[in-house]
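Cross-check.
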Amino acid sequence: MSNLETALQGAAEDGIITETQAQTLFSYLGQRLAAAEPTAGGEQLLAKRQGDDANPLEDSEAPRFVRGFHDILITIGIIVALLGFGGVGSVYATLPAIIIFAEIFVRRQRLALPAVALTVATVLWIGASVMLLTTDPSLGLEQRYIHPYPSLGAFLLLVPFPPLLALFHWRYRVPIALAALLISLFLVFLAGVLAFMAPAAGWHDATGSIRYQTVSIFFVCVIFMFAVAMSFDLRDRERVTRSSDVAFWMHLATAPALLYGTVLLCFLLLGVTTNDVDNYTGPAVVVAIVLVMMAVGLIIDRRAFVTSGLLSLGVALSAILQHSNMRMDGLLSAELVTIGIFVLLIGMSWLPLRRAIVGRLPLGLQAKLPALR
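Predicted model, tokenized:
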């Protein structure tokens, strides 16, 4: 950057441009180069996303996936080619293709949608490769660990994800890759706690022997995941940097995990079972938790917390309607109409609802949350 500044100062001294124009050009070119060149660490997360300027009338929650139909066409080609490589060769044959595509379309061209597709392909490749290795009869891992100790088997299956995803993110600096890396670390930690807790306590299988403890550990891990996602969110109130993109992907995974972890924990504390159809306790608990999750989504301006609860809300409404002796032929229609209208009302009144809720929070907290529109 110093060379650029020196050149512009020399042009000003030679009378080619004025001093003011030199300073303006230096600022403009510096911003353009910072957006175009990949950076490392926190600077990458705080750099503005490439693409067109955001429309002030549109919501800025989601990262921009597509800058044109070119991105869609390239992504379709990548998916078809990877499927073909997997069919012609094997799962291992797709790795060179993933690397080549990533070097061209992510490293060089910085295309958003292909970057997402290739990150997902990498995650699927890691999972498929690990499954092939663990089921290989010559290694005997499935007979020794997977079947006898499911928790230890889950730990072994998850361990390869963090280092490989860390390598992918280090090379290509894709927000979804960093989110996947952090989520995999939480999953490895959870599986490790359960895997090594069982032998230490003499349990055959932690997940089957200590339901309450297992659900509690899962709930605590999900709370930490949510806290990490919020740490990325709070760095960028305006939702214009890659830090917000990382938070988007983490919330997308954390929201359903937090919902079902809370439901399971409340069911255990209240003594509610999934087979309990004689009262409204179970469905009422689910509806209450879903509403709380939606309120959280409104406060932090993340719709993932609304969509994650739709399935649970549908199941709860179905149970409530059955208790109300509704005929089965009209049950599904009534359920779909109720959920559809509810979602439409939330979607259309998202901004007014958010202003009504966030406006009642302390000013110090409001200053840290995404700005009201």
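The CA atoms of residues 342 and 348 lie 10 Å apart. The radius of gyration is 25 Å. Passed to J.P. for a second look.
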